[in-house]
User: Fold this.
Amino acid sequence: MRKTCLNILIFFAFSIVFFFLVTPSYACSINANPNSFPSDYNGNVTITTSDCNFQTPVKYTIFAHPQDVTSGGLFANYAVDRKNPQDSQTIIANLNLSQGAIGKSNPGTWTLEVCSKESPLSDCADQNNIVSKIPIAVNAALSSDEQIPVPSPPCAEGCFIDGKCTCVDTAIGQISTEPQGFVRSIFTLVLGLAGGIALILIMVSGYKFMASQGNPEAVKSATETLTSAIVGLLFIIFSFVILQIIGVDILKIPGFSK
Assistant:
């Protein structure tokens, strides 16, 4: 027992030491709103924090650069702004990706950093001066004929084809938005539900047979239930054939056989 307690104490001691050793110098976490930008963006970005305080008298340097740029001397080639915090947890800075077309020249993942030094900019190469950093996305610009339409939220994943939503997610699964597909989906649902009911009725009739104990009325009732369930189940099975004959061979409904 003593040995076990000693091992536990040693484990916690090493855990505490490891925690303090691996804690980065920029322990504050920040959020950027928005966190994804078009390559020609020129506007504000709101930087907030919940676990540290910005010093309102201090003018912070907020800069953004591609992730592969790590040298402080190159930061001046990218988006830079110097701002006093709005309050202890909010900084609103300008992000100008259109100047010099730096956004169009460097689409991809960028890093947004908050530096506690106003100048010179090279001081922000020292990680001890970085309050925090966060990745942001700079999206490549699309030409007018490359614009990708955005599906509406109800559209199911993988169903947005050629700018058209072909099916939607519902509580009972995916249902096609095309007329023939919609009919087929509803028909399949109804057949599945009817088949489940028929199976339950067969089980109920079997239970009635076992519980009848030779009672003629109970046996008759169970027989009628079983007969109705079997007939209904046979009709459900052959309804697929009937649908194929009527919908495809006779009426020749387009897409109904898919």
Q: What stands out?
A: The CA atoms of residues 110 and 198 lie 60 Å apart. Residues 216-250 form the longest helix (35 residues).
